[in-house]
């Protein structure tokens, strides 16, 4: 016996609206607000462009998170949404009286649409509606009387079609709306594209910026003008993805000049919390200006592929903006022999706040590590520690583990395999590896049980794997690189 489920009044109303190709936004002015989200979804799915434009123009809430729907659509559908905004902006309505205030193109608030798409009874809780119609992460300083269009951008060597569409539309409507980009990633984009985008998306609204460039010097030459305007940036990552050594003396002198101008702009970044610098140009006594210009307490400082001089480290220890660090990460950083005393002072300064410490592939030696151990033992809040890919003997690792044995908050520990695991040709002896690693772990057991501890060899140049000894929640496992597995077979 079949059960007949008659359509709800809402379903009948939506079907009637979707059959009307000549619908106008004025036809929707008296439509109950609860019908707009399901109407928007159905019009979007069925590509009913005129209805979609009218729905956008008459949207009864102050926030429209259209990004989750656009991520699987083509440029045409974005243009339809923007056309709907044009209709809205051409109405003779005071901006304060306009209901829609924020169009969000980011892939966020999928739960808003899920709440409507998943309904079986044709109703949606008013509490859900109230929770879903506000932009939780939009900063208050970005809210003005002009309509806000919010997005995140990823720029490559050329602009994508949807990016061109948005930029052209924004230029045409620059007097009536405000483009807000909160997160921007730049991958090898030519300076002219970066300039074009930042001249349309005002840099003041950017909160997170990641830049990957092979031409750091040319980038440092034109970018300070825009960095000066990024007063609300919170997280800034700059990656030099290829290091060129043509005419090294000229490159060095240019690096000093450009990095000085670049770092001087950091005095304007009053909200900066996280800084990551990757590249040889951020080194060789160039860091004094940066540490002098930091004006806000950082939570995270990461540096990689550079060489820090004794002078750099001394200026770092004097920078009070680093005294509340939660993360301090160095990867493939070469330290001068006399710089570890400064590192010891820095660790002492952050001992009450530091939660993550990494010295990965930093060519540390026994004497250098010995300088750090007293201050390391004071870092009681540490939960992550990483000394991977340093050339330590078993005796040195024992000293290190005796120091970390009292750090009860550690949840992740990464150490290099001891030197005794390698034969004279640098090949791993799995027998020695499997024997020495458990002995090292036993040093911790009288004080604490490690939650996750790992010993690993450097990456194999042939198979790009490595040998790993892991104990997690007291369950031990050992794995070898592919080359060793082939030898065993």
Please characterize this protein's 3D structure.
The structure is a single chain. This protein has helices at 9-18, 36-45, 49-57, 67-70, 75-89, 110-117, 126-132, 161-172, 191-200, 216-222, 224-227, 248-264, 288-293, 310-318, 340-349, 366-376, 394-404, 430-442, 482-488, and strands at residues 63-65, 102-104, 147-155, 177-187, 208-213, 235-240, 274-278, 300-308, 327-335, 356-360, 384-386, 412-416, 452-456, 468-472, 475-479. The model is unreliable at 119-133 (pLDDT under 50). Helices cover 37% and strands 18% of the residues. It has 19 helices and 15 strands. The radius of gyration is 29 Å and the shape is elongated. By secondary structure, the protein is of the alpha/beta class. β9 (327-335), α15 (340-349) and β10 form a beta-alpha-beta unit. It has three domains: 9-132, no CATH class; 207-375, Leucine-rich repeat, LRR (right-handed beta-alpha superhelix); 383-489, no CATH class. It has a 15-stranded mixed beta sheet with strand order 1-2-3-4-5-6-7-8-9-10-11-12-13-14-15. α5 packs parallel to α8 and α15 (340-349) packs parallel to α16 (366-376).
Short key terms for the protein model shown above:
37% helix, 15-stranded mixed sheet, Leucine-rich repeat, LRR (right-handed beta-alpha superhelix), 3 domains, 489 residues, 15 strands, single chain, alpha/beta, elongated
